[in-house]
Known about the structure:
Layout: E1 5-10, H1 14-23, E2 29-35, H2 39-49, E3 56-57, H3 60-66, E4 71-74, H4 82-90, E5 94-97, H5 105-118, E6 122-124, H6 132-142, E7 151-156, H7 168-171, H8 173-176, H9 180-183, H10 185-196, E8 201-209, H11 216-220, E9 238-245, E10 250-256, E11 268-270, E12 274-277, E13 282-285
Parallel strand pairs: 1-2, 1-4, 2-3, 4-5, 5-6, 7-10
Antiparallel strand pairs: 7-11, 8-9, 9-10, 11-12, 12-13
Domain GFO/IDH/MocA-like oxidoreductase: 161-263
Protein name: Gfo/Idh/MocA family oxidoreductase
Organism: Ignisphaera aggregans
Amino acid sequence: xxxxxKIGFVGAGGIARAHAKYYKNIPFVExxxxxxxxxxxxxxxxxxxxxxxxxxxxDYVDMFDKVQLDGVSICTPHKHHVAPTIYALKRGxxxxxxxxxxxxxxxxxxxxxxxxxxxxxxxxxxxxRFSPEIISARRFAESxxxxxxxxxxxxxxxxxxxxxxxxxxxxxxxxxxxxxxxDLGCYAIDNAMYILGYPEAIKVSGYIYTALGKxxxxxxxxxxxxxxxxxxxxxxxxxxxKIVFKNNAVLWLKVAWAMHNDDLGRPFFLGLRxxxxxxxxEIYRDEHG
Length: 289
């Protein structure tokens, strides 16, 4: 491909670096600009990834107004996805926004409507969609394995007995908009809906808990992500939900950052002709009677 695709970044933290790492594997992608409210962090990012020094900004508005971009990665805290996404779309820039899409349904809907209105691509960073396991599970479901789906459970947090993300962008509701339900629940719901072919939901209920996030003893046990500040922990660390579909099928959601257990079980889905379970993918069905 002769034409270089010019990519920008809003946010220059760890997630932006993850995006940059994989962009680097695409020969026709060029890093053109970066913005971050911490200008020193933006400068460091630019130096590491070869962004022109004159295209480093503190304000994303300045970046979009002064630099011509083809696409942008939005890598800000959850609650702050909506504003730069909408601004980019209105400036004619395609958007890859980190998961979760937004902190509220109304923000997500506004983002979607703007993408449609301005005819730009808006993609949410659900990399699980490209996992061979999830792709295979969807294909089995499409083949009729889950015909008559009536019950399932979708789970995230299998390895997070003590893995509360310590950064304020995760645990401070003013920055994040929410806790584990946004961080991991979005994966669990997206995986299930993608595999099942997006059945129509008619009723949703659930509960969220700040169970161990405010517990000083729990925070003192250093997990895989390190300890966290319990005084600044203002989000949920456990969530459970029930989704009822039009055919009265039920899907349970369970997600956790920390718990006194080794896991929440494995995701599974039951149909009249068979069932499947994830992590690893297993298929259950009758063969030859």
